[in-house]
Design brief:
By secondary structure, this protein is of the alpha/beta class. The protein contains five helices and eleven strands.
């Protein structure tokens, strides 16, 4: 088991090692073509979100209109994401964060929204053998996708950013985008990040900050944190609240690629 007492400098070295591995051991091609939407057709997706926050906010006494407004915007964004995923061809079922994991039975993919409360979801979906996409970074550790230390192994870049640096152009998760800096968001916004283990595939980081990885993945069978073997594909994604309509075309391409890659056939 990896020690939890390693220094921040060691984590930076580990992140750099992951990037070096991506170049040395990855495909030679300049960049891969974007995945076809056809891979999503008819795939069954369980979208885990938070249904209850708006009603709970409305029941407060005295009411806080600003809180109700914020919670409603979060819920509205989830429904916009669901509509977009349906437009890609996915057969989407939604459930609340309190739902039992058994709802994932028979599904091809689970997506966990940033709107969930981490303590309600925790490791509920960790052991699924189907792919899981996560953009609630407070469960990256529960999912064995990163270590457990807040602001070291995972966190949120609260200063906000618009651009990412892409490192792994040959990988389908790069959506056909070349290596280098790309504008992902139209306006600066907080960015969720994680520092995955050496078994991860790193796609993007904040520019000049290799220890703040914004898009990463584990192939089925890859070694995750704490010597855990990925039971299915896993994708860690940067999205914080209010992100979806703020995406640039490149950002939208990365978002779609995460879902398309997750359900695409494994390349032998």
């Amino acid at each position: 088991m990896q020690s939890k007492s390693s220094s921040h400098g060691e984590n930076r070295q580990r992140a750099l090692a992951c990037l070096v591995c991506a170049f040395v051991f990855g495909p030679i091609a300049a960049h891969a073509a974007a995945l076809e939407r056809s891979v999503a057709q008819g795939k069954k997706l369980l979208y885990v979100m938070n249904y209850r926050e708006v009603d709970l906010a409305k029941k407060e006494d005295p009411p806080r209109p600003a809180l109700v407004k914020m919670k409603q915007e979060v819920l509205d964004e989830d429904w916009k994401v669901v509509a977009h995923l349906k437009s890609l061809g996915f057969n989407v079922t939604t459930c609340d964060e309190l739902a039992d994991v058994s709802l994932a039975k028979g599904k091809d993919l689970v997506a966990i929204s940033e709107s969930v409360n981490a303590y309600e979801v925790a490791n509920k979906y960790t052991f699924l053998t189907i792919p899981v996409i996560v953009w609630e970074n407070d469960i990256f550790d529960d999912m064995r996708m990163t270590g457990k230390r807040l602001r070291v192994d995972y966190g949120t870049y609260t200063k906000g950013a618009t651009s990412f640096e892409l490192f792994n152009a040959p990988h389908p998760l790069s959506a056909g985008l070349g290596a280098g800096v790309h504008q992902i968001l139209q306006n600066p916004a907080p960015i969720n990040w994680g520092l995955p283990g050496l078994g991860a595939t790193i796609i993007a980081t904040l520019p000049d900050q290799p220890d703040k990885v914004t898009v990463f993945a584990y192939e089925k069978g890859a070694t995750m944190e704490y010597d855990y073997t990925a039971p299915g594909r896993r994708v860690g994604f940067f999205a914080n609240r209010g992100y979806f309509e703020n995406l640039t075309p490149d950002g939208q391409a990365l978002f779609d690629a995460a879902f398309l890659w997750a359900v695409s056939p494994t390349q032998e």
